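Hey everyone, long-time lurker, first post.

I ran two proteins through the pipeline my lab uses and got sequence/structure pairs for each. Pasting them in order. The first:
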Amino acid sequence: MSQLADLIQRYYDAFNRRDLAIYDRLFTPDCLVEGPGVQLRGIDGARAFDRVWMTAMPDGKIVTLHKATADRVVMCENRYVGRHDGPLVTADGTLPASGRAFDERYMAVFELEGERIRRQTLHFDRLLVMKVLGPTDTSARNLEIAQGIYAAYGRGDMPYILDHVDDDVSWGIESVAAGEVAAHGIRRGKPGVVAFFEAWAATADFQSFVPHDFVAAGDHVFNQLDYELTVKATGKRVRNTGCAQHWTFRDGRIVRWRGHEDTAATRDGFRP
């Protein structure tokens, strides 16, 4: 590796370990950092530019694919790899954390002065960044989450369910039979969601559980559910079809879930 390429690699290594203090030795005081829609000057500007990407992807790493050097110039093709877990400030606005994986190529051109970087120019597809990390159809995403909850329940994946509910979620089946059917009633928060599923597991064995007819509209998802279960204490069979389920979302998390079923039929199954 040439001395010029080594300087750039030291900069990338510093970025990847989040060592912003060393920028004083890597950049000239009047350096220029520019990319699509942005220009920043000085070492603090170089730090500010890189902090944008560090904040947006706390685990983000620069992976160098190719380097070429000329007289005081280094050109690099890189990948930036990470998960979008923080806000990304762009010239087109701030993209809130999407949780999506990011792995895209870009070009960087460096002009050097002595043993420091005088100018860094970045070339990447701004529209591609918006496409990969920008807002999506919330209805489609909410529908995907609701269907994913049912799949997670079927495989016993409680962590998946809890990852998609709000800390203060309101969850349950409204029923005056809550005293007789352990799973009925309204619960709050993630512990309440756990208690809901534990109540069903402790009191009933499901023979069938079939969600269907999903419809999404903005922050709301509706579906129907057919199920059949045997009450452990009584041995009675309960069959409910066409139960209505209503999910309410806010910012991609479930803040309210209500199940509507023939509560009298369920209660009768729990009575001796």
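...and the second, right after it:
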Amino acid sequence: MMRTVYVLGPVVGLLSVLGSGCQKVVSIDLNQSNPQVVIEGEVTSNQGPYLVAMGMTGDYFTPSLNFPPITNAIVTINDDAGNQDTLRMIYPGLYATSTLQGVPGRTYLLHVNAQGKSFDAISPMPVRVLIDSVYTQPYHEFDGDLTYYIYVMFHDPAATQNWYRLDVHSATGAVDSSGGRRFILYSDRLANGLETTFRIRTLRRSQPGDSVMVRLYTIDKATYDYFRTVNDILGSDRSPTSLAPANPNTNISNGSLGYFAAYAVDSAGIVLR
């Protein structure tokens, strides 16, 4: 029987601790599989440096944060305007740009030489969609504890199909839109060109005066599909009697797992009242 394996790192794991192209789902026999290269990198419209993290896979049924890092890689990122940056390793398995600046509308190409193989990926950075407004509404639980709803509003452009990821966090940890559980994703397939509102509920330990940061990522479809399939894995109970989910979709060539994404970011802050 074939089961699949995927380790949430380096970027989803390691960086949490610190669109075009071929897409595929890779199946691995857990009983006989050798470790595979995982490459995860991002370029954004924010100021760099941008990071690419590399490591080797682990066992699906024995998850660990101790991913073997890849330390001897040659990593470059190019854009379609003729800019190129050779990344330097700043931590075992973690590589950073020096000069590259992400610009919406440009396409970015990742090239990696590692473990005796070459890996490539391409991702177009969409035009940035702006947050229109962020507001909060206090909510009292049945036992009297105070929580909040945070509402995030933006207008989806009608001229193009768009995909989004939303992050909401606070310094106290009382607001965490993913929290190692799920990523908030949205496709305008059924609501193209409409005003969109997300509602996120805070944890019980949220307090008036907590500062909250909201980030709206405009992403390409390959990145959307990657995080959608990551959500499937995060929703698995990891039971040995249940089928492990397929690996997340990847836009990286030559059998690597992971993703490379270029996305535009808008952010807004609010204080709970």
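Reply from user beta_strand_b:
Welcome! Quick read of the second one: Residues 55 and 200 are 33 Å apart (CA to CA). Residues 221-234 form the longest helix (14 residues).
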